[in-house]
Amino acid sequence: MKIGNQYFDTEHKCYIMGILNVTPDSFSDGGKWTDREKALLHVEEMIREGAAIIDVGGESTRPGHQQISTQEEIDRVVPVIRMIKEKFDIPVSIDSYKSEVVEAALEAGADLVNDIWGLKYDRRVADLIAKYQVPCCLMHNRNNTEYQDFLTDVCEDLKESLAIAKEAGISDEQIILDPGVGFGKTYEQNLSIIHHMECLKQFGYPVLLATSRKSVIGLTLDLEADQRVEGTLVTTVMGVEKGASFVRVHDVKENMRAIQMTQAILREKKEK
Q1: β-bridge pairing 112-115 and 92-95
Q2: Predicted local confidence at residue 32, as pLDDT
Q3: Which residues are catalytic, by number?
Q4: Which of 9, 156, 161, 194 has its CA 20 to 30 A from that of 141?
Q5: What is the three-class DSSP state of 71?
Q6: Residue 32 CA: distances (Å) to CA of 27, 53, 83
Q7: How far apart are CA 191 and CA 213, in angstroms?
Q8: Which residues of 182-198 are buried (b: 16+ CB within 10 A; e: fewer)?
């Protein structure tokens, strides 16, 4: 898979998408990176520690978040995307589900669209992805947690996102799937989708796992967001074992080490 000017071996490797929230109210790091110079220093640190993609978000999507205006979101993300692209040779992802924000971000140089609504909130996002010929990450999400058969229903929901992508002309080579941990799921369902995330491999697309510091970890371990690194690492190890091609995380260094160790063990197992 090509993202920006770089190629990703999604069949054999797992890459880190480093999180850069330029928001005052994100659940874990709200307000830390709203200063642009500090944000750039953090990007530099994430790249040094092993991040392969930087995911820029301008609106918190934590439970109970307040939706902000499109213009405010654009004003937050576009200058940061431009600065990253000017200073670093790394693919940048825009974390948004609004077409106006996505278009502004793509014009600013974003290389990938990370849509937490899997193209269902704003169908024009799909058209923009096709127009700019960039990859996209389609996350599972829904407005309720009422499932008849949880894993089957998750896959059926994702089929709807894939149908929108196909209708817009997005090619198979440009699609990544995300099981959507923390979105439209109960605590038990979040644990289940992590445990059974390999069910997404049936579609034949690379899978991204995004669990970093999320409430499913906090509820399990009774820890605040900034204390959830170890819990996140466990999910990363499981993700690598189950074939994830990407993990989206806050703590790059620790997750990079966990990936490298897990891959070394898995390689040794295959060689026997």
Answers
A1: parallel
A2: 59
A3: 214, 248
A4: 9
A5: helix
A6: 11, 19, 17
A7: 14
A8: bbbbeeebbbbbbeebe
DSSP label of 6: E
267 or 95, greater pLDDT: 95
pLDDT digits (tens, 9 = 90+) for 122-148: 999 999 999 999 999 999 999 999 999
pLDDT at 34: 59
What CATH number has the domain spanning 2-271? Answer: 3.20.20.20
Instruction: State the pTM of this model.
Output: 0.94
Residue boundaries of the structural domains of the chain: 2-271
Amino acid, res. 192: S
DSSP symbol at 139:
E
Name the amino acid, one letter, at 103. E
* Distances, alpha carbon 211 to alpha carbons 100, 182, 191, 216, in Å: 27, 8, 10, 8
Query: Mean pLDDT score of the chain, rounded to an integer?
Result: 94
pLDDT in tens, 53-80: 999 999 987 766 678 999 999 999 999 9
Contact (CB, 8 A) for 247 and 209: yes
The residue whose two tokens read 């407005």 is: 143
